[in-house]
Amino acid sequence: MKKRVKEKRYGRITFTDVLVIFAGCVLYALSVVLFTSPNNIAPGGVIGISTLINYAFDFLPLGTMTLLLNVPIFIWGGIALGWKYLTRSIICSAVSSVLMDGFNVLIDKGYLTPYIGDGLLVSAFGGLLCGAGLALIFYRGGSTGGTDIVARIMHLKAPHISQGNFMLFVDAVVVVISAFVYGNIENALYAIICIFVMSKAIDTILYGVSKNNGKLLFVVTSKYDEVTDVILRRVDRGVTLLKAEGGFRRDDKRVILCAVRSNQVHLTNQLIHQVDSEAFVIVTTANTIKGRGFYSYDEAPNPAVYENLDSLAGISEKTQENP
C-alpha cells in the first residue's frame, strides 16, 4: 500500500504568498473606498450589502460592516467545509476590512481623495482595480469570504446548481436592491458594468486571454505515487503516468503528465517540491485544452469561474480526470 503524504504539510503560507495577498487586499480595498462606495455603486456580494448599509447608516464603518457580515458566513463555512480550508479567506477578509476603514480615515484627513464623477469611469476603473486585487488573492489561494463560501456550501447541497449561477443570483439581488436604496436605476446599471469589468479582469489575469488554455507539467520523480496523490487531492487535477527510461543510468522511471490552469501552476510546483525537493519539473504552455475538467468539444466555456477558484483555495474535494 502506498504511503499517503500527511495533509498538514501542505497549504503553508509563504512570505511571497503574504506579499501577493496583501497587495491584492490593498487593491481591493482601494477600489471600494476610492471608486464604488463614494459613487453609490454596490458591486454585489457582501461588499455590496455593506456599501448599502453604510449609505443608509453612515456612522457604521464600511470595513467593519463587511467583516461583521462575514463572521456568520465563516462560522457556517467552518462547520460545513472545515476550518483548515478557510484560514486564508478569514485572513484576507480581516485585512481588506481593516484596510478599508484605514483608507477611509486617510480620506477624512485629506491624505487620499476618492474619485467622484463619471459613472462609466467609476465602473470601469473600480471594476478593473477590484478584479486585479481579487485575482492576486485568488492566485495565492485566498478569498475575501462572502458569497463564494455560501455558494460552495449551496453547491454541495444542490450539485445541479453551479456556484457561478448562485453568485450571479446573489449579485443580481443586491443590484436590484441598490436601485431602491439609492432611488436611482442608473446606479444599478453602473453596478452591472462594474461587475462585468471585474469578472473580465479576474479571468484575464488568472487564465489569460483565452479561457481554454493552460499549462502542461512534466514531472520526473522517484516519488511518483506521493506526487500523484497530492496532485489529485490538493490541486484537484488528474494525472497520466508515462513510462520512461533514464538516459544515463538506463533505469525505469515514471513521468507524470498533468494539465492545469495557469493559476494552479504555483500551487502545483509548491506541492511537488514539498513531496520531492529533487523532482525535475518542466512547465510549458498549452494553447488549447479540451476535455473533462476543462472544456468539452461541443460546449461553450462555463461562466462559473468561481468553481475553478475553489480548487485553488483548497475547498474542493472532488477529483476530476485530465483528458
Short description:
This protein is α+β, with helices and mostly antiparallel strands and 323 residues long.
Tell me the structural class: alpha+beta
Percentage of residues in DSSP E strands: 5-15%
Q: What number of structural domains do the residues give?
A: 2
Instruction: Name the helicity range.
Output: 55-70%
Mean pLDDT: 80
Unreliable segments (pLDDT under 50, ≥5 consecutive)?
1-10, 297-323
Total helical segments: 11
Describe the overall structure.
This protein is an alpha+beta fold and 323 residues long. It folds into 2 domains: 7-207, no CATH class; 214-313, Alpha-Beta Plaits (2-Layer Sandwich), CATH 3.30.70.120. Helices cover 57% and strands 9% of the residues. It is built from 11 helices and 4 strands; from the N terminus they run H-H-H-H-H-H-H-H-E-H-E-E-H-E-H. The chain has helices spanning 15-36, 45-56, 62-81, 87-108, 119-139, 147-157, 163-182, 185-207, 224-235, 265-275, 305-313, and strands spanning 214-220, 240-245, 252-260, 280-286. It has a 4-stranded antiparallel sheet with strand order 2-3-1-4, covered by helices on one side. The radius of gyration is 21 Å and the shape is elongated. The model is unreliable at 1-10 and 297-323 (pLDDT under 50).
Layout of strands and helices, then pairs:
Elements: H1 15-36, H2 45-56, H3 62-81, H4 87-108, H5 119-139, H6 147-157, H7 163-182, H8 185-207, E1 214-220, H9 224-235, E2 240-245, E3 252-260, H10 265-275, E4 280-286, H11 305-313
